[in-house]
Design a protein that fits this description.
By secondary structure, the protein is an alpha/beta fold. It contains 7 helices and 10 strands.
Length: 229
Amino acid sequence: MPESLLRTERICRYYQRGPHTVKAVDSIDLEIRSGEFLSLVGSSGSGKSTLLNILAGLDQPTSGKLMIGKRHLDEMSRRDRAQYRAHRVGMIFQSFNLVPHLTAQGNIELALLFNDTPKNERKERAIEILSRLGLADRLDHLPADLSGGEQQRVAIARALVKKPDIIFADEPTGNLDQENSDDIAALLKEQHAAGLTVVMVTHDLNLAQKVSQRIVRLDYGHIAGEETL
């Protein structure tokens, strides 16, 4: 059986809104194994994106434990968590989150700057990954000059170029038409087949069933069900 890559123990994330406590994630136990494709599925407000952000080290839990192998992510220093995100994690966002004044190549090179890749290697790796994703003729294009599908491919290239242990994708097809959604889904499935661990958040159960090995359904901060495909 593949080794455990990430594991949560009674993870909670609560927010205060005036006198009310919002339990976005409420005592979740979850294990993600190396090499699997897991989808977190639920409606808006179910806690899936909050849980994803905790797993990726972008947010800290209110209580509970998050294990990266044998290390406690929630007990790491801010510097160590930043190193975890820079070296081991690739993030793909629904809104792409590309730097508007940088070209496609510049956006990729920026990701490598943050994980201390030497300058002469950054250009080479950026060109290689963009070419591999069919964007060889878009290297010098700004995000505004790219289609939605092309922007998402750049965002995926930015996540992959770091050679991470795990990809976290937050509604990666949410802003795309059906054709581009199918292309991005196929690309994620291809990367998983090559050995990458993928955790995807989506409200689209059909999409999750097409690409995932396992689906965890969330509802009001709790795990409501799980299925293996």
